[in-house]
Amino acid sequence: MTNLPIVFIACRVFEVLLARHIPEELKDRVTFMDYGLHASPKKLRKTLQSEIDSITTPSLIVLTYGICGNGLKDIQSGIHTLLMPKTEDCIAIFLGSDAAYRAEFNANPGTYYLTGGWLEAGSDPLKEYEKNVAKFGQETADWVMDQQYRNYNRIALVGHSDEDLATYRERALQVAEYAKRWNMTYDEISGSDAYVRQLVATATDLSQADDSFWVIPPGEKISP
To answer: Fewer Cβ neighbours under 10 Å: the N or C end of the chain?
Structure first.
């Protein structure tokens, strides 16, 4: 058990998933951060560090993130204890474990993943294209998107239930239709909420922390 106040700082893509599993008494202790911060690891690191430093009471801060392109590398715990999943990015969390992500990656390395959280709070290739057309014009937008996505060969929607998949399938298929530009195929994957459930359970009892998580004591930093 921990006697420290528990605070969650999470990427907004996890808003729906966390709402299903965080105890009612902790739901007012969650801060969701803008998904767009992922576009710049330096900005992500700076913004998260500022959010951590703004908490003046020593706390157990649960970072619901992966390392995110080294965006969380070298974040300082300060007066706090940090708990976070030991994984490269959020796809492993949506799939249920880092092992599940690595197995999926080894089988299909050229996959671009979609989730309900990403589609609601984040971005997708079609949305990016529409923004780029408005900003740069179609010719430049086509070039930018080709540079970014030409090495992918599959687009996959990850859902935790048939209801999840049904809710987001229409938008995912729209994105997949656009992704035919790069000959991407479309697939659907059954994910798991196991990683998030384990994260919440570990937050309420740090003795449960296993090799799936980093626990960063006060005065240390995240050093994957």
So the answer is: N
Nearest 5°: CA angle at 72, between 71 and 78? Answer: 140
User: What is the reported pTM?
Assistant: 0.89
C-beta separation of 79 from 58 below 8 A: yes
Classify residue 185 as exposed, middle or buried by CB count within 10 Å of its CB (0-12, 13-18, 19+): middle
- 190's enclosing H/E stretch is strand 185-190
46: confidence class by pLDDT, cuts 50, 70, 90: very high
Residues 98/212, Cβ–Cβ less than 8 Å: yes
Task: Find the mean pLDDT for residues 50-71.
Answer: 93
Would you state the CATH architecture of domain 6-91+193-216?
A: 3-Layer(aba) Sandwich (3.40)
As a whole number of angstroms, the distance between CA 6 and CA 51 comes to 14
102-132 residue pLDDT tens: 999 999 999 999 998 888 876 799 999 999 9
- Residue ranges of domains in the chain: 6-91+193-216, 98-190
